[in-house]
Amino acid sequence: MSSEDFDWHEFLGRWRDEWVPRADAEDEDDDGEQPAASPARPGADESAIAAAEKRLGRRLPPSYRAFLGVSDGWHVDQMAAIYQLGGVEDIDWFGDPFDMTPMYEQSLGDDSREEEVLLAGMWRRALRLETDSDMSYALLDPGDTDRDGEWALYVYKGWSGEFPDRYVSFRAYMEAMYRDFHSDRVERPDFVNGTTRAQDARVEEAHRLALRGRYEEALPLLEEAQSFGRPGSRVLLTQLRHLLAPRGAQSYGFLAADPCYLPEILPLEAMSSAGGTWRSDGDDHWLGMMAARGVPRETAETVLGAMRDGTHRYAPPGPWGLAVAEARESARWGATDAAWRVLRDALPLWEAPGPSLIAPVGLLADPVLGPLVTPERGREILATPRAGETGPVPEPTPDLDPPGLAWLAEPAANRRPFDGYRCVWVEGTDPAALPDLIGEEGAEPSPPTDLYEASRRALRPHEREGVELWEDRAVVAVGRTSEGWAFAFDGHSHARISGLFRSPAPVASSTGRAVTVWREQSSPGDHSAAFHLSVAEQGEELYAYTVRGKEVQRSGAIPEALDPTNLFGPEDSEEEGELRVLEALHTELGLSLPRLALTQGRLPTFTTRSWTRAPQPGEGYGYVTLGRHRP
After folding, report:
1. Which of 138, 145, 191, 143 is nearest to 168 (CA)?
2. 413 near 487, Cβ under 8 Å?
3. Element (H, E) at 423
């Protein structure tokens, strides 16, 4: 970073002219001295700088040298760190008086990064700049240089126990301190100057750009304004970042307590605590934090409970709210692509509840609609003009659900979507009716929930009164396919297809066709995985088969297109045969499953009747539970 094109006179003069104490500064410091009236000193002449370089034994880096010629030292006033930078007569080599080098060197290894090696050696070769600080040190490192000859500057806060903060040059450090100077004084009502007015104008421009869909232009404006601590910049920037990374947690500060924004923002704040990813002290800490922001405890508890049990609903007013309700009705049974298309078309109708919101971020907290917002779709939201603004409309993002069932057998980023799975499809039936067909007594669809969590929390047969150990009751997600079949899907069971297996297809087919598919989870060293198909109509099984390795059990008149002898070749792997039958099921019967809803979203769940029958006289069964012993 060259200093040749940097005007230190203008930069330091502006800082000097804007100088006021912090809003929280005392009239006197701890030594009874008055706060500095100006941060600057007269500049050192060339001979004084050259004398210092001769004393030190080397030429100073360009930006620091140029700075000294304009001001021979500076009152930085960095809160709880560096207060005063000395001049040419004050600076000297640090010399590592606290023997930091061995501590940093002991962590180095053959694979250490260059920056780690440089930091370990910095302590003994650094030039110390500060003359007044809070157990902190400003250190220029001649061993950490760039192509312009600049030395990196490290600020080590001895009280923090943290690694030093690194700046690529003295100029970069001073520019950062100037931004901190502004941030520390933002609460002062009299702190108004050309810089604050320029940054506030950037926030207003970024607000307009964001609503017009030009978020990429708004981002750098807000990032710069936030570095100066300008009001409103952080919450606008938070919304952009949240939609660009929808799964990340973001804090909206006191906006959560504002009645204008609370319905949209407070559920977002509750997501981490509701998801169980909060601190060990859990709800009390979160509720206390919300109370400190001004949120009534009863309100916070209500929102947290709705987020936790899946009953929260994002319900904005107006035409956008009607589109949200329509989209949720589609998405709650798994039609996520159709739901997204409804939302996408309605985005221009979104109206901000107040000037602090620039996007419908409350959508992310909805248990059904939130999972639809991928990073790509988040960018699509931000690139769409909203709230009455106009501009180019972005190209629609592609649908996310592939047709058919083949995705069940395809590898995901690190593993298969499901190691094993089983599903019942019922033709022409409302999904809400499936518990009556195949559910245990009293079963009803739950609020939308994560299938894995629902399966993990479900009680096992030995934990449930009135349930026999031989019973295999599955926790299933329920929904509707794009072809109109209702489905009940279990992707997290470790059950096996046993001799007691009883297909749910016949009882599910009382009003039409029903299909059961079970791909048993494989276990290396145990036995081959199995694949089962059964099709029933009007309460009667039409045909069925189970393939395990080279062994096939079959019954009924199996259509040629679904015949296992045609689909599972003698030289095929289990995965190849599985993929072939899944493709045939889509082609011949029109079966599919919504990938996004089952792998990343939330659907209603219920517990089925047993997939195994009671053992007959002379038949045996085994039941094994695995647990961790607690001493």
Report:
1. 145
2. no
3. strand 421-427
What's the pLDDT tens digit per position in 102-161? 999 999 998 999 999 999 999 999 999 999 999 999 999 999 999 999 999 999 999 988
Q: What is the mean pLDDT of residues 333-345?
A: 97
* Mean pLDDT over each residue of the chain, to the nearest integer: 91
- The model scores a pTM over 0.85: yes
Cβ-contact 140, 64 below 8 angstroms = yes
Task: Look at residues 116, 157, 123 and name the one whose alpha carbon lies nearest to residue 140.
Answer: 123
Per-residue CA distances from 338 to 329, 399, 431 (Å): 10, 9, 17
Q: Which of 510, 535, 547 is nearest to 588 (CA)?
A: 535
> What would the two tokens of residue 586 be?
């889509």
pLDDT, tens digit, for every residue of 35-79?
Answer: 677 899 999 999 999 999 999 999 999 999 999 999 999 999 888
- In DSSP terms, 543 is beta-bridged to 535, 556
Q: DSSP letter string over 514-563?
A: EEEEEEPPPBTTTB--EEEEEEEETTEEEEEEEEETTEEEEEE---GGG-
- What pLDDT score does 537 carry? 96
Helix intervals (H) in 423-518: 434-438, 451-457, 505-508
